[in-house]
């Protein structure tokens, strides 16, 4: 395999976008005439609906390589990317499993403390020169990264589907979403500025400057193996920081492909490293190393608390994007069809393995029956199959054990009197035991006594609860220690304002199920995290504010 690198950058405002190579004939290539970088990103995602005929899911490294236009993006030999080079630790490797068929498609490196320390040392050495460049110069590198990701979007999506399981159209959408952060921060870096404060004494002048926070560490999850990297790396690099990334050992291939493209784009050696291996070993070094000044993490609340505690010993700056327990409120005056459409999108995208996914559907009594009937019908009509199959609506969960929690929550609800409307079981005939059918459970007036009401299922189970009035709905929605995202459907705009303000969540969708893009402040409150990612808010996390006072003027 070539030792090159992957990540993203945006393109000039007017150009014809055609990927340099098309997919094998099994798939349609993506080609769009784009009037602007932003619209080209959207068009990549939209084009995902045009998939070619079905193709058997990869079951070996060679079968996956055969699907790619650029096999150098696929690192199957068990490596990390440290200080500008792919290298392997001496430890035994772990298999990377395709959840659609349970087969090994690659090996994952088993890097530990030694490799992590090497990456941090390289980041510390490389950062001064990177930070000394102008924001415009750093932005040119990020834009080149974007361009390379766009050109290789099909390959990146196939790699992601093979290791993570999501439908190819969703993987393509994630690549476009991931790339949007490179687009945004390639420009946003040059907008970072300080200020001159009005003097309080005639002999003094006071100046505020913004500087990169320092070497950063990022720990990213398996459910969005590309987007969670660029959402962190793009603002960090734009601000002048260097970064060491620890991706999930279950989905390292996307991270390594992005590293390959980043190197090709001209990201200097040491500025970006990807260390694949044991979470506790790598995380332990990241949280304790005095040269790491910031840690950013996306994952469970339990692990986020542990990392925050470990970071306290060196008083690190932390950003924590943690778990959710999203309510989805539907009032009697709502457009039920629109509510069902948004409920489907917020529940079953990525097989429900999304931190912002709807976990509790709260529906007012007057439209409850209509809502559950329509929801169950649309859910039952979903195409559940391997992610590379044409027309796939939902793929497997990310590993063979992942459906267990969904099974437990459904069993608990049914034992306490709830009604199963559709799904509720695994379907190994799809290819492996990681397939769990999309499920709708009518819970009626039962709520707090059900496990699924208080716990994040992180799977394709829609539990629907009934409420009587606005106050009851708000009380039910806020009855959780989590506070990431919430949704509400109503035609009454006064109610929308009231409910939106009353919901104790960092993000609220009002008659809207899509919350996230590159310009919004993504993040939660309560035990769902600290800080925000995205937009003008995201780069702030990677900057220090310094006061300079000039005296005896």
From TrEMBL:
Species lineage: Eukaryota, Viridiplantae, Chlorophyta, Pseudoscourfieldiophyceae, Pseudoscourfieldiales
Compositional bias segments (type: Low complexity): 36-64
Functional pathway: Amino-acid degradation; 4-aminobutanoate degradation
Domain Aldehyde dehydrogenase: from-to ranges: 88-546
Catalysed conversion reaction: succinate semialdehyde + NAD(+) + H2O = succinate + NADH + 2 H(+)
Active site per database record: 321
Protein family: Belongs to the aldehyde dehydrogenase family.
Transmembrane segments: none
Gene3D superfamilies: Aldehyde Dehydrogenase, Chain A, domain 1, Aldehyde Dehydrogenase, Chain A, domain 2
Any single GO CC term annotated in Swiss-Prot or TrEMBL for this entry: cytosol
Group of enzyme by EC: oxidoreductase
Keyword entries, A-Z: Oxidoreductase
Keyword Repeat attributed: no
UniProt-annotated stretches for the region Disordered: 30-64
GO molecular function: succinate-semialdehyde dehydrogenase (NAD+) activity
Record-listed E.C. numbers: 1.2.1.24
UniProt-listed GO biological process terms: gamma-aminobutyric acid catabolic process
Protein name: Succinate-semialdehyde dehydrogenase, mitochondrial
């Amino acid at each position: 395999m070539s030792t090159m690198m992957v990540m993203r950058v945006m393109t000039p405002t007017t150009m014809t976008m055609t990927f340099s190579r098309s997919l094998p004939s099994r798939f349609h290539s993506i080609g769009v005439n784009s009037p602007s970088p932003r619209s080209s990103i959207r068009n990549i995602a939209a084009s995902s609906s045009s998939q070619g005929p079905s193709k058997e899911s990869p079951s070996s490294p060679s079968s996956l390589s055969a699907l790619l236009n650029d096999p150098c993006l696929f690192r199957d030999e068990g490596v990390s990317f440290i200080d500008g080079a792919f290298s392997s630790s001496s430890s035994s490797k772990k298999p990377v499993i395709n959840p659609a068929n349970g087969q090994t498609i690659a090996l994952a490196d088993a890097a530990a403390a030694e490799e992590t320390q090497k990456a941090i040392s390289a980041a510390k050495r490389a950062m001064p020169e990177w930070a000394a460049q102008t924001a415009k110069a750093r932005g040119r590198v990020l834009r080149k990264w974007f361009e390379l990701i766009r050109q290789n979007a099909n390959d990146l999506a196939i790699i992601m589907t093979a290791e993570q399981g999501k439908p190819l159209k969703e993987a393509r959408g994630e690549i476009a979403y991931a790339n949007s952060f490179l687009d945004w921060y390639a420009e946003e870096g040059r907008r970072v500025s300080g200020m001159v404060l009005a003097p309080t004494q005639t002999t003094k002048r006071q100046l505020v400057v913004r500087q990169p926070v320092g070497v950063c560490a990022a720990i990213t999850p398996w459910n969005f193996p590309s987007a969670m990297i660029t959402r962190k790396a793009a603002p960090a690099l734009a601000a002048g920081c260097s970064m060491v990334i620890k991706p999930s050992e279950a989905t390292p291939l996307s991270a390594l492909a992005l590293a390959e493209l980043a190197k090709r784009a001209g990201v200097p050696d040491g500025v970006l490293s990807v260390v694949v291996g044991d979470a506790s070993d790598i995380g332990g070094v990241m949280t304790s190393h005095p040269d790491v000044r910031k840690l950013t993490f996306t994952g469970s609340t339990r692990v986020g608390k542990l990392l925050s505690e470990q970071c306290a010993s060196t008083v690190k700056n932390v950003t924590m994007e943690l778990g959710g327990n999203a309510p989805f409120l539907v009032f009697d005056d709502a457009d039920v069809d629109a509510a069902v459409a948004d409920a489907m999108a917020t529940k079953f995208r990525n097989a429900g393995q999304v931190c912002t996914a709807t976990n509790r559907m709260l529906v007012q009594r007057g439209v409850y029956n209509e809502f559950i009937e329509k929801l169950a019908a649309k859910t039952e009509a979903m195409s559940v199959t391997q992610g590379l199959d044409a027309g796939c609506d939902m793929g497997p969960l990310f590993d063979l054990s992942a459906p267990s929690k969904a099974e437990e929550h459904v069993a608990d609800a049914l034992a306490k009197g709830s009604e199963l409307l559709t799904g509720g079981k695994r379907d190994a005939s799809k290819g492996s035991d990681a397939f769990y059918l999309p499920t709708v459970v009518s819970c009626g007036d039962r709520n707090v006594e059900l496990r699924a009401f208080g716990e994040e299922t992180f799977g394709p189970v829609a539990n629907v609860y009934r409420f009587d009035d606005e106050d009851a709905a708000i009380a039910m929605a806020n009855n959780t220690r989590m506070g990431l995202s919430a949704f509400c459907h109503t035609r009454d705009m006064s109610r929308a304002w009231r409910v939106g303000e009353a919901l104790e969540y960092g993000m609220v969708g009002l008659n809207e199920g899509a919350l996230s893009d590159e310009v919004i402040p993504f993040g939660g409150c309560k035990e769902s995290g600290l800080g925000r990612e995205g937009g003008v808010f995201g780069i702030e996390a990677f900057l220090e504010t310094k006061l300079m006072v000039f005296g005896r003027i």
